[in-house]
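Example record for the data management plan.
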Amino acid sequence: MTDCTDPGRIKQLLALRLRLHRLEPSRPLRDARRALAFIKQRRIVLSTGRSSLPSLSEAIAGRQMRGGWMANPEVFRIYKVLGKVHRSDAVVTAPLILGRETLLDVTLGPAVVRIAGDLKRRDAARASLPPLAKRLLADVEAHGEVRMDRWPASTKRGREARLWLERLLL
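Corresponding structural encoding:
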């Protein structure tokens, strides 16, 4: 195990993170083809946001972003490339990490479906849901989909119920 209190080692690890996440020193990803190659190489990335995973929006910008990507000077390129990536059959999207849209290489799709569909896991997750989230899940299972703007709950409480279901892959 390495000593993470050494300032030199911390600096080294941060530089490694930036390099692996294609943030510094790096050329930005200019098109969907390169973005898809980025996802295929890393297998799992966040669409936007910050975590220990690489962020596709930061890779498109070619640098670490402060604040939201919508306020970034490269907003139009980021939006265009993200849109093409989301329409591609080469990626699977799911809100896996921190409830954020996570992009997975298509080869990981069956594994996520298998985990999400595991009956024991689903039963345990269902048991941990608050009542409103259980009601939302029952409506989704009965109707296939539910329009949240027409669902009989306040926006805040409905959003919380939806987030419960997303985070537990239900």
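Summary line stored alongside the record: The two ends are 37 Å apart (CA to CA).
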